[in-house]
Amino acid sequence: GNSVTQMEGPVTLSEEAFLTINCTYTATGYPSLFWYVQYPGEGLQLLLKATKADDKGSNKGFEATYRKETTSFHLEKGSVQVSDSAVYFCALNDDYKLSFGAGTTVTVRA
Amino acid sequence: EAGVAQSPRYKIIEKRQSVAFWCNPISGHATLYWYQQILGQGPKLLIQFQNNGVVDDSQLPKDRFSAERLKGVDSTLKIQPAKLEDSAVYLCASSLGGTSEETQYFGPGTRLLVL
């Protein structure tokens, strides 16, 4: 079956630090890959996505590249801000439904 | 554009009681999803509707959970009777057509506590 494994948290960083959250997946077909983010007190929202191998999704300074050979979709940001403090979820959609990782809590200190 | 609406936002009930959640998707979205998110975990799909038909309810505990989307727009999810392990956030999401590439848009969720 389909599954997503992402880096366990919590992760605590200082402002302007580099952020990487690892995500690997198992899928029977050719999934679309997503990063969703949940800011404190808010609902889940799409951060970025990639629908085929070698695609790069980007938004708000975050990037992730769909790597079929390593079955990975790692999230990166070069310089985080306090406002990036949130829970980040990696997810895949292979059979019309989303399968989520457990989430990684990121806290950015000023 | 209005987002996905859910109510209530919070609910506290005793075990063995019943509870219902309501969801109104984004206008024009044919596909509606209900997810259960237990604390510390990612959301898990309970049921998926395409218009008013069920596409996937393989992970819905049918002995106690039921859901309907009678007119292909809003939806209700019911739990009867509730158990302690049903304490979770129940998320509703919608998408245009339900394909794998599409973005799913989530509501704010209903936080359920079963005592």
Structure in words:
The complex is a heterodimer of chains A (110) and B (115). Chain A is built from no helices and twelve strands. In chain A, the strands form three sheets. In chain A, strands 2, 5, 6, 10, 11 and 12 form a six-stranded mixed beta sheet that branches. By secondary structure, chain B is mainly β. In chain B, 0% of the residues lie in helices and 48% in strands. Chain B has no helices and eleven strands. In chain B, the strands form two sheets. In chain B, strands 2, 4, 5, 6, 9, 10 and 11 form a seven-stranded mixed beta sheet that branches. Chain B has a four-stranded antiparallel beta sheet with strand order 1-3-8-7, with no helix packed on it. At the A-B interface, strand 5, strand 6, strand 10 and strand 11 of A face strand 5 and strand 10 of B.
Topology of helices and strands:
The complex is a heterodimer of chains A (110) and B (115).
Chain A: E1 3-6, E2 11-14, E3 19-21, E4 23-26, E5 32-38, E6 44-50, E7 56-59, E8 62-65, E9 75-77, E10 86-93, E11 98-100, E12 104-109
Parallel strand pairs in A: 2-12
Antiparallel strand pairs in A: 1-4, 3-9, 5-6, 5-10, 7-8, 8-9, 10-11, 10-12
Chain B: E1 5-7, E2 10-13, E3 19-24, E4 31-37, E5 44-50, E6 53-56, E7 65-68, E8 75-79, E9 88-95, E10 105-106, E11 110-114
Parallel strand pairs in B: 2-11
Antiparallel strand pairs in B: 1-3, 3-8, 4-5, 4-9, 5-6, 7-8, 9-10, 9-11
